[in-house]
Each structure stands twice: as C-alpha cells, then as structure tokens.
C-alpha cells in the first residue's frame, strides 16, 4: 500500500469526509422534521385511534410505500428536475442531500409509526379517558414510551443514509463515495478504495455506538 500517496490525498479525503457528514446531517434533520410528524399521522389516523381517518391513512401510506420501493440510484436521477429547481444544481453534497432527504423521510416515518404501535394501547385509552388532548397523548404517552425504539430507528436511518451517500458519489454527489469513484475506481487506486471503505466503516460504527448508548439512556424499562 502506497502510504506516501495516501498522505498526499489526506486533504481530499478530509473534504470528502466533511461533505459526507454534511449530506447526512441535512437529510437526517429533514427526516426528523418531516418524517416524525408523518409517522405520527400514519399511526394516529389508523382505525380505532384518536385521529381515525382511513382516507388519509391509506393515501399517505400509499405514497410512503411508493417512495420506499424506488431504488435510491433511480430516485437520484428521477429527482434531477426537482433538485435543480430547489438548489440550482444537480451535483455536489447539497444537491445529493435533496434525494437523501426524500429517501429518508418515508423510511423514518415508517419507523416512527412502527415504534408507536409497540406502545400499550391501554396507556392510550387511559390517557383518552382522563381527558388528555391528542397533543398530550403524543407528547406524554406515545413519544415517551416509544422514544428508545425511535432512537434505534433513527440510528438505522442514519446508517442507511451513509450507504446512500456513498452511492450518490456515482453521479457526482460528492463525499466519500465520489472520492472512491474518481480516485479509486477510475484510476485503479486500491489504496484510496481501501481508505474510503475504512472511513465508511468507522462512520457506521461511531453512529451505531452513539445510537445504542442513547437508546439505552432513553429506555423507560431500564
């Protein structure tokens, strides 16, 4: 392995690392801001719950399932016009963040919905019987009871986004994936390829570790 060459590439690798973190940060923030309330709506509008509305539940569920079923590389290309209109370009980490966000929103929304389904319905019924408003039920019952599960789901979402961000490098999305394609694959530089894989593995391990610690700290059962 050419360590001298690897040292020379350190500035480019650092820039790629920062771009990857930027993409993950933006898309994770959007997933939480949009995906969390979407997941709550998917749960609360189901049959027998306080916002029961089968039309809304079925419609949103259908849209979420469609987006989740599209392979990410196809979603990247399909969103070119939207990305261009929104950020003015289709390349770079900011542009890639648009597609990453669109992929992350339904993914996290389903996780939120699934986490809330694990909450004992007796707690919800007791809250309703005591006169709690829907907002109070969401805040004081659903969120508190399901938060550990949602943290684990958010960790899974972030790890998936790390993989997606590397895939975005194939079409000039920037980040570690772009570095691996341009310098590793096109130039047959195995040193760079190995280095980028190591970076991605470290990223996954760090986020998994933080996610596990946070989930344990927020788990009411412990």
From TrEMBL:
One GO-annotated biological process of the protein: D-methionine transmembrane transport
Membrane association type: Multi-pass membrane protein
InterPro entries per UniProt: AA_ABC_Transporter_Permease (IPR051322), MetI-like (IPR000515), MetI-like_sf (IPR035906)
Protein name: ABC transporter permease
PANTHER family: ABC TRANSPORTER PERMEASE (PTHR30450), D-METHIONINE TRANSPORT SYSTEM PERMEASE PROTEIN METI-RELATED (PTHR30450:SF1)
Assigned keywords, A-Z: Cell membrane, Membrane, Transmembrane, Transmembrane helix, Transport
Entry keyword annotation includes Glycoprotein: no
Transmembrane segments: 20-43, 55-82, 94-112, 153-172, 192-215
């Amino acid at each position: 392995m050419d360590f001298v060459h690897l040292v020379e590439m350190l500035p480019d690798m650092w820039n790629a690392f920062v771009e990857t973190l930027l993409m993950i940060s933006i898309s994770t923030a959007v997933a939480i801001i949009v995906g969390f309330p979407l997941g709550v709506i998917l749960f609360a509008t189901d049959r027998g719950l306080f916002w029961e509305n089968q039309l809304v539940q079925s419609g949103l569920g259908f849209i979420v399932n469609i987006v989740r079923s599209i392979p990410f590389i196809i979603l990247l290309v399909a969103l070119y016009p939207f990305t261009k209109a929104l950020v003015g370009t289709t390349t770079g980490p900011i542009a890639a963040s648009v597609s990453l966000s669109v992929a992350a929103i339904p993914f996290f929304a389903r996780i939120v919905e699934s986490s809330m389904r694990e909450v004992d319905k007796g707690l919800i019924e007791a809250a309703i019987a005591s006169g709690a408003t829907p907002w109070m039920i969401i805040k004081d019952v659903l969120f508190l009871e399901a938060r550990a599960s949602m943290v684990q789901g958010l960790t899974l979402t972030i790890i998936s986004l790390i993989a997606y961000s590397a895939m975005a490098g194939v079409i000039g999305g920037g980040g570690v994936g772009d570095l691996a394609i341009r310098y590793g694959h096109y130039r047959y530089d195995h040193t760079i390829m190995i280095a980028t894989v190591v970076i991605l593995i470290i990223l996954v391990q760090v986020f998994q570790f933080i996610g596990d610690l946070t989930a344990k700290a927020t788990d009411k059962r412990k």
